[in-house]
TrEMBL record:
This is Coiled-coil domain-containing protein 12. It comes from the Eukaryota. Keywords: Coiled coil. Residues 1-23 are annotated as: Disordered. Residues 34-86 form a coiled coil.
């Protein structure tokens, strides 16, 4: 049994015909209007299916991109940790830096003393 599109839409065939831009001479042809409406419904269903597939595809692409970015963040965090470890001076390095500073201070004072003796 065919469905009555005017009952489903809750309006008359004339209103449906106007909404579908059907010429006035075809308004009384309920069979043609029903066929036209069914065709439009089928178009909309296929469009909806296509859009759902596109949505799923985009969702998958975004999930892949999120995973890629999370991996990149993990790599950057590990690299940062490695750099922090390298920047933290060991006891030997700290001792060497302190000795170097002391030598620079000693050299500066030696130069000043020599300069003062000459004057």
């Amino acid at each position: 049994m065919k469905q009555d599109p005017s009952k489903e839409a809750g309006c008359s065939y004339e209103t449906l015909a106007r909404q579908m831009n059907v010429p006035k001479e075809h308004v009384d042809n309920k069979e043609a209007l029903t066929t036209q409406l069914q065709g439009r419904v089928n178009e909309l269903h296929s469009q909806l299916e296509r859009l759902e597939k596109e949505k799923e595809s985009q969702e998958k692409q975004l999930q892949d991109k999120i995973r890629e970015l999370e991996n990149h963040v993990d790599c950057l965090e590990k690299e940062k940790e490695a750099n922090e470890i390298r920047k933290t001076p060991t006891d030997d390095q700290a001792y060497g830096e302190r000795i170097t500073k002391e030598m620079n201070v000693h050299r500066t004072w030696t130069i000043r003393r020599r300069t003062l003796k000459r004057e």
